[in-house]
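Many groups now describe folds with learned vocabularies. In that spirit, our science desk offers one protein's residues alongside their backbone shape tokens.
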Amino acid sequence: MTKITKRDFLAGSAALAGGAIAMPSVLRAQATVLRWGEMLPVTHPQVQMVERIAKQVKEKSSGRIDIQTFPAGQLGSGKDMMESVASGALTMTTDGAAALGSFLPQLSVVEAPYLWRDAAHMAKVAKAPVFTQMNAELEKKRGMRMAAVTYYGKRHLTTGSKPVKSVADVAGLKLRVPPVDTFRAMVEAWGAKATPVNFNELYLALSQGAVDGQENPLPTIHSAKLQEVQKHLILTGHIITPRLVIVNGDFWKGLKDADRSLLEAAIAAGVAWQDAELASQEGSLVATLKAAGMSVTEPDLESFSKPVLASLPKQFESKWGKGTWDALAAL
């Protein structure tokens, strides 16, 4: 893991782009450096996945390909890093499909609430024709491509002081959402007040009462220590979340075939490890969070899903494309 500030990173990228840093021509020819930024802390399996990918790539390339990792929002918000990947200042990052929807609107459907039946159903999206088409459009319009789809977990609700047994209990609560329109629409359908907060500001927002609750997968709740500032865990399971490994398109196309294959193999192995690790953690973390002092509630799930399914697919049909929701649900 490399420690660097966003200012240092941007200054270094500008210097490299301008040729201000002298380097022997032999090293320039031999070394391929990838910079991979992440929002999550080093304790999260997603960041550990990147470290495993970096290690495998370095070993398989005899040190010729070096992946430098920047976790915990060192390089800014998720949107900052996606914009950096689009410009080429950053090589890779991992983010949600809904967040990537700010660059290609129809992509947000992949992270829609109540779309996927389970993780295996969600995994089918990577081979779906509609996803292949989205990837081609993302590369053409924004200079990025999706190199892999990962499992991020099943999202659940937490609150600070109010127990929740049905959707009626969240009416009026300020619930943090990522700055994404589909998440806001979901929370508003529940009758709560959707409050966008960047993830690296979430712990503080919860501790200061700027928001009453939030929603995330169990491994994210635990790795970010949100149990320290939230009392109630409500097992809503409202979204089965994919995360997308995103890479700069020009960088990817510029790789030699052998190097691209090496990276693809390392990414596939890393994703398989992370997906299994997250599934394993989800199986034990309810007990862990309960032992840490959280109350755990299994709410009336239909009360949460019914208002969302009644409004959200129709609301976003023009953005996602007519029939896209139904096509993915039927995979």
User: Anything to note?
Assistant: The beta strands are 32-37, 65-70, 92-96, 144-159, 174-177, 193-196, 213-217, 232-248, 295-297. The chain has 15 helices and nine strands. Residues 14-28 have pLDDT under 50 and may be disordered. The first helix runs from residue 6 to 18.
